[in-house]
Amino acid sequence: MRIAEELGVDFEAVVYRTTPPDEATLRDIIAKLEDPPTDLVRRDSLFKKLELSDDDVQSVDQVVDTILANKMIMQRPVVVAGDRAIIGRPKERVRELLSG
What's the chain's average pLDDT? Predict the structure, then answer.
């Protein structure tokens, strides 16, 4: 958000904890995503706790199903600008997307 404010770009922040994306929204993000869809799934302690492996999140359907079942596993931030979307890590990627 800070980068968007610095660049004077209008934005809408969606807090996934209170307003998690539904299936249609996830599929729309994935369709615009410049990163591999599997990168939307965080590989952290929750990933391990759920006993997931990379094989469980290889397809778009698997990624969508996994995130819908466990919203906290979604990588963030995800930045959508028009017909492009990125995972905003590292932060410089957000600046590049919003400046272009």
Answer: 92
